[in-house]
Protein 1
Amino acid sequence: MKPPLPGAGTALPAAQDEHQVQIHLRKIPLLAGLSNEEIVRVKQELRIRQYGKRDIVLQKGGHGDGLLFLLSGQLQVVDVTEDGRAIGLRMLAPGDFFGEIALISNSTRTASIVAMSDVLVAFLPAAVAMHLFSHSPSVANQMLTHLARKIQRDSEFRSLLSIHNTSRRVYTFLLLMQKEQQGEAGGLAVVDKLPTHQDIANMINTSRETVTRALAALAQQGIVQKEAHRLIIVRPDALQKLVQGP
């Protein structure tokens, strides 16, 4: 990882900045319900920055000075253990926002955010974001829904980490990812932008070799089909049975 720098990231030229914002703002679920006037006001306050792969977008321990949106690319939420190991907690996709907990609680960041590819990120200053939370019913409702889902997801993830059988841990992780994305292709369940085997291993506290073996076994049984950057769960019922165990 590259060390964090003050104002890390590269600001876009003004013309490209405005063009990108016009393209993406309505695609951000949190902002989709805003009026045209509110969208214009938000656009005026946003700061757009680009980051390269493995750049640190947010540093754990930093102050919650704003709300951030991922416009393009892929990010990973990362925590560092006491012995210095980086543990991936979850992946972020375009349209997702982050930094909300430190912002709402006026506290420090509880995890770092690392770019897994070249990314485009929008930063909304704290005062503007808090105004939206208190004055826009659509934003407030979506934030409440998001926080409820976050609590549920974190609870499911803690349960996943308590599974002693590491293969079952991999199977459960795949189902949780698919459930979160709700992806489908021709009626089949899909996990888009599947993390690398090493990233999955980091997230569920196992080895890369274990993840590779588990995915290979699923493919051999015809339960999953691996494509370039996604996994198609051909037989979700069979995967569910493996998760439940004997």
Note: Residues 11 and 49 are 5 Å apart (CA to CA).
Protein 2
Amino acid sequence: MSTTQSERLRELLEPLVASQGLDLEEIAVDSVGRKRVLRVVVDSDTGADLDRIADVSRALSAKLDETDAMGEGEYTLEVGTPGAERSLTEHRHYVRATDRLVRFQLHEGGELAARILAVDDDGLDLEVPGVKGRKATTRRLAFADIDKARVQVEFNRKDDGGGKNDKNVKNDKEEEEA
């Protein structure tokens, strides 16, 4: 997708997405055979359930139908949310990833896997897991030191009480049924 088309689509669609209480995270137009697919990724601090996705999808579809933003020819509109292992590129992404395990690529080189404890304007307070039975440590990481960051999926995270964190894993009953 050309930068001009991307900018034009963002200018057209972002106000509609915002009116639904969501953030426009990404726009991509891909060719699939003879058809084109417009993928729109949205999110919010509280997440986006299926009803919100359907509402924003209808609003975007109506707006695109009344303009020539996609040009002539058929296209498919796909609206969704970021994946479980999303890249963190904006301040709001880090805030939304608080209490999640994240893998950081550092500007100085090297990698760090740590849990985000707190986010402010300058950087992050992290909990770095202990290795080989050692206790976890805390660390401060400035945004300027981060090259890339990606949320990690956790299947067996233990909370402070030794139980499973319901937000990140299936419960035992679901695991037995699978």
Note: The mean pLDDT is 84.
